[in-house]
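Data card: per-record layout.
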Amino acid sequence: MRGMCSAMLTLEAVILALAVPVMISVEDVSKPVALVSGLGLALLCILTAGALRRPQAYVIGHAIQVGAIALGFLVTVMFFVGAIFAALWFGAYFVGRRIEEDKARWAREAGDA
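The structure for this 113-residue chain is written out next.
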């Protein structure tokens, strides 16, 4: 689970960082707002990806998805992009949990045999 979620957050960090020039030049968002919101979320993605050993980091990951969607109020297309990344994040989270549960069950069954 950690690997897939970490990959999603890293990819999302790149997209969020690339959204900053779009916010500034295309959407006329002020530079400080664009830098804090876009690069701030990108940095939070990277820091959270590194902290996924702790269960609390997944809560932050969920909050990042809300923040990415909320960027749509600054750049309309981010509603769509944020929703896509939220879907990828939750997919990685739930599929990863399922894989870990299956591995644990298989290990128990192998130990019982």
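Known properties of this structure: DSSP finds four helices and no strands in the chain. The chain has a mean pLDDT of 93.

See the next section for split statistics.
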